Amino acid sequence: MRKTTALRAAAAATAALLTATACGSQRGQDAQDTAAGGACKGQQTTGITDKTIKLGGIYPLSGPASAYGTISKGVAAYFSHVNDKGGIDGRKVEFVVRDDGYQPPKAVEEARRLVEQEKVFAVFQTLGTPSTAAVWDYLNKQKVPQPFVATGASAWGTGDQHPWTIGWQPNYVAEARVYAKYLKDARPKAEVAVLYQNDDFGKDLLGGFKKAVAGSGVKVVAEESYEVTDPSVSAQMASLARSKADVLLDVTTPKFGSQALAADAKNTKWNPLHIVNNVASSAAVLEPVGFKNVQGVVSATYFKDPADPQWAADPEMKAYKDALHEYAPDADPDNQFNAYGWAVASSLHQALDAMKCPTREGLRDAVRSLKDVKVGMLLPGVTMSTGHGDAFPLETMRLMRFKGERWQLFGKPVDTRKEFGPTAK
Amino acid sequence: MSTTTASLGTDRVRWLRPTLTVLVAAAVAVGAPFYFAPFQVFQLTMVLLYAVALSGLNLLTGFGGQISLGHGAFFAAGAYTAAVMLDRYDTGHLATLPAAAAGCFLLGLGFGVPALRLRGLYLALVTLSFAVFLPPLLKRLEPVTGGSMGLTVDKLQPPAWSGLAEDQWMYFVVLAVTAVALLLARNLLRSRAGRALLAVRDNESAAEVMGVRLSLHKTLAFAWSAMFAGVAGCLYTWVIGFVSPDSFSFVLSITLLAGLVVGGLGSLYGPLLGAAFVMYVPSVSQDVSEAAPGVVFGLLIITVMFVAPTGLAGLPGRVLGAVARRPPRTTAARDRTPEAESAPGAEPEYQALSGPSETHAPADPAVVDAEPVGAPPRTEKE
Amino acid sequence: MTDLLQQVVEGLGSGAVYASLALALVLIHRFTGIVNFAQGELAMLSTYVAWQLVASGMPYWLALPATLAVSFVGGMLLERIVIRPVQGAPELTVVIVTVGLFIFVNALAGLIWSFTVKDFPQPFPDGGLDLSGVRMDWSTLGIIGVVAVVMGLLYLLFQHTSIGLVMRAVACNPASARLSGIRVGRVLMFGWGLAATVGAVSGVLVAPVLFLEPNMMGGVLIYAFAAATLGGFDSPVGAVVGGLFVGVAETLTGAYVDVIGADLKVGVPLVIILAVLLVRPQGLFGRAAVERA
């Protein structure tokens, strides 16, 4: 017995090592990291040359959150599109996508692969709060930029421990402020029932909303949460209906958004003003519920919804649809996540163009000194701005109401910075 | 049983080679972090860490015959114990290990008592619902656990005297813990308790008649097993430095069980193979198909089960059996179907695993005998 | 009081959803003695087949039988191609094959139909009954009704047909069954086909309520497991009673017990199951295993 055990142990150890050797790389390759000369002396130029720039991204291509994996297709389509037109400032973009299955340990592994093996210039987008939180310490220690993470947690822009990491989309607190302001203006005495996803996303938004309405006539009278693993939110909706609140704030992800909208439509005895958060506001979420059932629903947004006919003639939208058709024929151009990918990639394009030095430090500084940068896929009136003490690129959103078969923007763009001061924890 | 009798008749020549092999393996294991790139060392560290959890599950499922789909919860309990101690009480890393081990041992003991009443499927599904329940519970205990944002804690840092990089130091620490854990698992099985466990698995009623204290041993098996999972969770916190409730969903529990069965149930080194499988195969899947890694991963699991129904650990024995044209064993014969032979995915994996090791020496009778210790016997269904 | 009854109705609604899938789980367990992790995903796949047929212009009432037929054949093929090769292997190996199948089918559906939520036609009329303030949708009633019918059919199949007897023999001891002249392979294929069909019914029923997307059945599966465990894994009646019980219990505690709340309500079935199983280890309606030493 002992003999065979020993043999097996040896075999197993060797096997594990051999699997690892598959890539054949060795320790000590860190020496290849390069630095710039001239005015940018001493700064890191890993992953960037005069002709190329290598970026990595980590998305859930498998597992429970794979619905978001398609963002990487929008990003990749944008870079292919730009490469065909000569690249970013003459540099061809190479975009390496890795799958973390929405598991933090896997995200750490893939981030290390991108940095240590692929030698990327920057880790452009990690998706989801858990994955991002798992890797940002590492990336900041390695001094690798982690621009425009695909999560709206407010943590990415508060605190100064992680200068290499920055968010992009309006953070959940900012979004909550938009709704709070709208209610304070339009329904100053509103009683609000809240349905929220029991994770950082839901809690951040709910917390931001409560803070923003504090001291006003708007009150949160009922709140119910659901887990991403729950089959449905119908029970929660029935509980909320008991509150008889006159506003329902619906903080859900797409599938649960559809369920909540349908449950609201079915309940003819309770007809609150339904505010659905941006993540679940795509026409693709509303359509299955039936447009007749979602009339008058309110939401806020910052980029153009590809499923919305009002942008059909928009040049950027046309470029997006053509590029997606050409480079990612299996991706659905009407899916808002593809458009999100396109928008965030073109935002990075702008940031790369703005770099003073073509270095990692250059990118780190560029994303933190954006001045009213316009991006084609963003709504008119929504621009990216960051600066000293402000690490949130997008903090402006526009309200919209669903009418007929499409969203209609109303009111002026709401700049949450001006309304409530900088986002703080 | 046959392996046990074989080991009684040892002779000196046959002792020499395994000793050498162990030394070589040890040398390779110690040398690895100096050869591989840091991120590959990190991957190896993760393999070792999962192997600890799997060998714990192996004690329960492989040797004890009780199926648990809740080991992800014990893993999470260990990870959170470490993270909370580091975060709130600022204890050193080393202090968290015994705490996580003891805590999970007690938790396992508590679970072992109701588990006594439940068998097979029912136990599996009750433990699964425990794994489902844990993440929301962790979110609720926000003041302690940091809620859904989780806790970020310091990773294990190398002491200055070692002169090692962070990943190397972590690797060695995890290697040491893993070695101790695997040895402990092996010795547990050889102890009175282990033999009792095997007896219970093979025939519960007979064991009881023989005077084995059933309830005691089954409960203890659960406790030991939970302790291993907790230790693995604690190591996880040291290595990743971040815990969040959604990292420990029930998918983790199912992955652990799948890893164990793929690696080889009831084999002492099956957990290592299983850990390597759950660690490396998802990345391989992505290299094969970027569009849908899950399609490839799912297929690979099925393929491995076709080729090696008793797990990868049983594969060399099966192949040798076929090569030696011994009268095929019942299980081996029945699954040699066209599908099994044309399975493309698992072939390279298998070759890489067994190629250079000495296991292939066809003349060695002991190896041919080495049908996985615990290929669970085909007992009648209940 | 009206509120309470309304919550009970909601609970029955979700309970019927769990029960529908639990029936398929019980069926496959009766036939093969294993628990099929892929059952929910197969149901989801069947639902996509139905969706595809309807989307390509086929009337709903034609698409439905077509889907059931496709599911039946698909289930049989699945048994032949995926399960048969590991037939003789340890039980856990078969279970892990179904886990592999789960991952495979889920990713495949995502690949083919994407993860965007799909609208699935509702066979039952809009609106519902209003019983002195308590509203019950026709769709909820419809699901409960269909689940009851399926349950009745399965009960008849198990108790009053020769196939039920044969199937029990196969599940108990395949070797002996084969020796007594039963064509075990065919029986197993039939079992998988039937389970896939019952699963398809479940998927088609719940898709209009939960909305169709590849992860639609993932959450249902956990609750269906709970329902089947509570009811005893052998009994269709148990699966339905278990499902309704779990649905009502979690809805009520989620709504009225503030300490538990909606976030921890998933723990309620756990506690109930544990309590029931400690008293009756074979579940509410299961038969106790009699063992030969």
Q: What can you see in these coordinates?
A:
The complex is a heterotrimer of chains A (425), B (382) and C (293). With 425 residues, chain A is α/β, with parallel strands linked by helices. Chain A folds into two domains: 216 residues, Response regulator (Rossmann fold, 3-Layer(aba) Sandwich), CATH 3.40.50.2300; 130 residues, Response regulator (Rossmann fold, 3-Layer(aba) Sandwich), CATH 3.40.50.2300. In chain A, the strands form four sheets. Chain A has a four-stranded parallel β-sheet with strand order 7-6-8-9, sandwiched between helices. In chain A, strands 2-1-3 form a three-stranded parallel β-sheet, sandwiched between helices. In chain A, strands 10-11-12 form a three-stranded antiparallel β-sheet. Chain A is globular, with a radius of gyration of 23 Å. By secondary structure, chain B is mostly helical. Helices cover 71% and strands 1% of the residues of chain B. Chain B contains 19 helices and two strands. A two-stranded antiparallel sheet of chain B has the order 1-2. In chain B, helix 3 runs antiparallel to helix 11 and helix 4 runs parallel beside helix 6. Chain B is globular and about 55 Å long. Chain B starts with a helix and ends in a 13-residue tail after the last helix. The N terminus and C terminus of chain B are likely disordered. Chain C is mostly helical and 293 residues long. Chain C has one domain: ABC transporter involved in vitamin B12 uptake, BtuC. In chain C, strand 1 and strand 2 form a beta hairpin. The chains are: A alpha/beta (425), B mainly alpha (382), C mainly alpha (293). Chains A and C meet through strand 7, helix 7 and helix 8 of A and helix 1, helix 4, helix 9, helix 10 and helix 11 of C. Chain B: It is found in: Cell membrane. Chain B: GO terms for molecular function: branched-chain amino acid transmembrane transporter activity. Chain B: This is Branched-chain amino acid ABC transporter permease.
Summarize this structure briefly.
With 425 residues, chain A is α/β, with parallel strands linked by helices. Helices cover 37% and strands 17% of the residues of chain A. In chain C, 74% of the residues lie in helices and 3% in strands.
